[in-house]
Design brief:
mainly alpha; globular
Length: 141
């Protein structure tokens, strides 16, 4: 599982005294544990798709935080956040490109936005940026 790789990377960062890596790995592991508790309460198990969602959400938050630091000209903190994002981004699967999304949409019979979004959500969860799918889907309607 992805979380096991993150735990190993966290231990390595601890040995190397890499505070930036440890900080972001700790955040992801904590969110993983919280989500697994939530899922156990409803009788479900944690899986890699959930871990990918956690990483994606964390990356989005880091991006917003980095933009904030850039607006106030704090380049040191912006650089630190960019490093943290790089540490966890490598655990995401390769995302579909715009061309690959168009190729998938071309294969569909129903090219309405709801049908396209449902298709990508069920078949490519965690492997596609749904905002990009929405943008491409609007070109077909």
């Amino acid at each position: 599982m992805i979380i096991d790789e993150i735990k190993k990377a966290n231990m390595q960062a601890l040995k190397e005294r890499n505070q930036n890596a440890r900080a972001i790995y700790s955040i992801v592991m904590t969110r993983f544990m919280n989500r697994s508790i939530e899922l156990k309460e409803v009788g479900k198990e944690m899986n890699d798709e959930e871990t990918i969602r956690i990483i994606q959400k964390t990356l989005k938050e880091l991006s917003e935080e980095k933009e904030g630091y850039e607006k106030v000209n704090n380049s040191q903190m912006a650089q630190s956040i960019a490093e943290q994002a790089a540490y966890i981004a490598k655990y995401l699967p390769k995302m579909l490109s715009e061309e690959e999304i168009k190729a998938e949409i071309d294969k569909l019979d129903d090219k309405t936005i709801p049908a396209i979004m449902k298709y990508f959500k069920s078949n490519f969860a965690g492997k596609v940026d749904m905002a990009l799918v929405n943008k491409v889907a609007r070109q077909y309607n």
